[in-house]
Each structure stands twice: as C-alpha cells, then as structure tokens.
Structures
1.
Amino acid sequence: MNAFRRRGVGPTLLDEAIERSPSLEITALTGLIFGHDEASLQLFVRAGFVHRGVLPRVARLDGVERDIVIVGRHLV
C-alpha cells in the first residue's frame, strides 16, 4: 500500500467519484476517515467536503482506538 502514497492516486479517484456521481443519480457523497489521518482529511476538504460529525473511539487500528470523522458533500 505504501507504494501508492504521495503519488496522487487519492485525489484522482476522489475527483473521478465526484465527476461520475451525477450520471449515476447520486446527489451527495459521504466519507468516513480516521481522525488522525490529516492528509486524507485535507484531501476531502480541498474537494469541497464539509465536517458532518465524529464517531469517537469506534475503530481500532494498530491496537489504538481511533475516531472516525464523517465528511460530506452535496453534488447538485
């Protein structure tokens, strides 16, 4: 997985999802992001997503309880 980091794959895939969604009659997108993942949070903010809420300590990653941040964007 590290081979794909910092290569622009995330922004490309997110832009594609945003672009194709209206043709699939999808009017809003929601993202669930680990709260400590600043790079992913910034990616979604730059793409126009806004903070919708936090699910505190609902996930365990590498033995650590993590928050999940909910972000969303309306497309129409």
2.
Amino acid sequence: MEMRYAGRGKADHAAPGYPTAGMKQLLGFLHEKGIRTAVVSNMMKNSETLTLRINRFFPENHFEFIMTSCDYLFKKPHPRIFKMACAKAKLSAEKIWYCGDNLICDVKGSYQAGMSPVWYGACAKANQTLAEDIPYLTVMDWKELIQKIDRLIAKEER
C-alpha cells in the first residue's frame, strides 16, 4: 500500500490532474441512462496509477475499464489503441462516442478507428486545427453534452 501511495504522489507532481467542471454530473447522467463508460489515456503511467487518481476524484465512477498508452504500447491517435478499447468493451466502433480535448489524438484517432468523435473544447490548447475534413461534435462544457444526449434519447423514445 505504501508503494502505491508513493507512486501516485510522483505521478501527480509530474502530471497534475484535476476534474473538469461538470464531469461528476456527466458521469452520473451516463450511468443513470445506462450508457457505458471507459477511459483511454495517453498517460505514460500504467492504468493502475490512473485508476487510483480517477477513483480519488470520482470514487463513485462506473468505468468498465481504464487503459493507458503505457500498458498497450500504442499512443493516441494511433487507431490501434481505440480498436483495443472496442475489443475490451465488446462493441463495434460505430456504437462508440469518444470524448476528448485534443483534435489530433482524440478526434482524429477515434474517427480513424470508426468511432464518433466528440471534441471537448473547454480545456483545449489554443489554435488546435485539423488538416482533414473530419466530422465531429463540439461541446464546450459537459452540461452541453448531457443536453445533446438527452435530446437524442428523447428522439429515440418517440
């Protein structure tokens, strides 16, 4: 136990993380609606380290799995890490919405793997652009994503 704590502290200093506003509400909404969730990260620490960090911020999370590049040897935007996530989830890529804050790593990578990309622009680095014409949904806060998903669910129920 002490070694895990020490490792977690080092990871936090090297790459401090913090939850974005509205994330707790989004995760609660998705769970309530029966929408499955997972994490795919380019973090260069193992998934156990990232799981500890996520559990500290969101102890009630329902992520089915947490993957990091460190564990799978492929970094986003390589489509292989996204395809590995599909296999782990036992879902085809077309059924997955992938949300991320990087146009190249998250939007381009998930699109090339066959997923529907959602760009979270609130935390994005300035002046990000995509050279390719890739369709993706943009949200500037998680409440906006909740509203969009809620509208889609309402349409399907009609």
